[in-house]
Design goal:
Elements (H helix, E strand, L loop, with lengths): L2 H20 L3 H8 L3 H30 L1 H21 L3 H28 L6 H26 L5 H23 L26 H5 L2 H16 L1 H4 L2 H8 L5 H27 L3 H24 L4 H22 L3 H8 L5 H29 L1 H23 L4 H4 L23
């Protein structure tokens, strides 16, 4: 990596570290530490997600017109202010406002940061650059969550204030690092108005995205991917594990750790495999891997085996999800970029990020109640979703050009947005 890329990746890792500090504990902080109760805690999380959705509606056009650097710096500062205010908030209004700032800032950072990575990488290195980004994000989230868990104490509100202050500091470090990066000159942002040509039918904004059949199919596929995986991590699948499989809550931590460990270990092992194959077929294979993962989850809760076997199967579910994620990180991201017309790279990027955010918001809403009460239907539903990933990916492959579908032949791509924070919740 060049100096610019190293700085960008370092800032990416530090911001993920800050997110890992706070996101797993946001619900507890609002409901218990600030005494607002579970209802308002849910509303705060909803505001966090809604602010992200609204911000992403406008992010793409601004990136196209102004470039990613000022957008990233502004988003990082906004997120830092939101985090710091949230740590100091002592009433409902300030909590809601702070959550909105934090949600909007963290959502906008991702497409801007990804665009900077694209500008600082070449066609031969771009796939590996995004694999490295995903690797560092997960590593940062995992280490942040681990350290944050050692600091938090429900009986001491000051411990949560410290967490949010650390998060704000990490965002400001990201802004400072971004300002030190010298981006290569790029003429593609002079006019964000599409003029037809590659990939679309003209029009402007999201209308052009909707008129591009391949991108529309990729957005549908992306929604299913995020809904069936990240949208279930800390809601439906966790509820299913504790209610149907009788998994001890502490074992959920081991399951999430297994997910992160597989990503960290497998990311670069699978990279050479992914680089040499068609992207559509790689995504299709992820659907099959996740189908097996949901079968393991079904055995854990419905197989009537020993508790040890159930726990092992449940942890294996998260591990298999991690393997699929490692295959997706260098695949979906460059594909979004390669589908975008030159004048609309930010808009395409923002549209895909918006789809992801919607899936992350709806996933817990649908999966949570099903996982807690409708155990059999829950497993069957998401087995079908996983098989649907395979079908949708193979259909998408028929709409792609050889250069778009084959990573080793792909033309220079320009922008992308895929992150796990949001898994945070995926906290993205």
């Amino acid at each position: 990596m060049g100096a610019a890329m190293r700085r960008i990746q370092a800032g990416n890792a530090l911001s993920a570290f800050g997110l890992g500090f706070t996101v797993p504990y946001l619900y507890i902080y609002v409901a218990s530490v600030r005494g607002l109760g579970s209802f308002w805690a849910g509303i705060v999380l909803g505001v966090f997600a809604l602010a992200a959705l609204v911000a992403l509606l406008f992010t793409g056009r601004v990136i196209d017109r102004r470039g990613p650097l000022p957008v990233l710096v502004g988003a990082a500062v906004t997120a830092a202010v939101g985090a710091l205010c949230l740590g100091l908030a002592n009433n409902l209004v300030t909590v809601l406002g702070s959550a909105a700032l934090l949600g909007a800032g963290t959502a906008v950072m991702q497409p801007a940061l990804a665009t900077m990575i694209v500008w600082c990488s070449g066609p031969a290195s771009r796939t590996r650059a995004f694999a490295m980004q995903f690797f560092l994000q997960n590593l940062g989230l995992g280490i942040g969550g681990l350290f944050g868990g050692q600091i938090v104490d429900e009986s001491r509100p000051a411990s949560f204030t410290l967490l949010f202050a650390i998060e704000a500091g990490m965002f400001l470090v990201l802004a400072a690092i971004a300002l030190s990066v010298k981006l290569p000159r790029n003429a593609a942002i002079a006019d964000a108005r599409p003029k037809g040509g590659k990939g679309g039918k003209g029009g402007s904004g999201f209308r052009a995205v909707l008129g591009h059949r391949a991108m529309l199919q990729l957005c549908v596929l992306g929604f299913v991917l995020f809904f069936a995986c990240y949208g279930q991590f800390e809601s439906g699948l966790a509820a299913y594990g504790t209610e149907a499989a009788g998994i001890d809550p502490s074992a959920l931590g081991f399951a999430l750790a297994a997910n992160t460990a597989v990503i960290v270990v497998a990311q670069f092992l699978v990279l050479r495999f992914v680089e040499r194959r068609r992207r559509s077929r790689v995504i299709a294979s992820v659907g099959l891997i996740w189908t097996v993962a949901w079968l393991f989850a079904g055995y854990a809760g419905l197989g009537h085996g020993s508790q040890t076997m159930a726990t092992a199967a449940f942890v294996s579910t998260y591990a298999l999800f991690g393997l699929g994620e490692a295959m997706l990180s260098p695949t979906v991201a460059p594909l979004v970029a390669d589908l975008a017309p030159e004048s609309m790279v930010g808009q395409y990027n923002s549209a895909f990020a918006l789809v992801k955010q919607m899936a992350l918001a709806l996933g817990p809403f649908v999966g949570g109640p099903m996982g807690a009460t409708l155990h059999g239907p829950y497993i069957v539903t998401f087995i079908l979703f996983s098989l649907g990933i395979t079908v949708l990916a193979l259909r998408l492959g028929k709409k792609l050009t050889p250069a778009q579908d084959q990573p080793m032949l792909a033309a220079p791509s320009r922008v992308v947005a895929v992150h796990k924070s949001e898994q945070v919740g995926a906290a993205a």
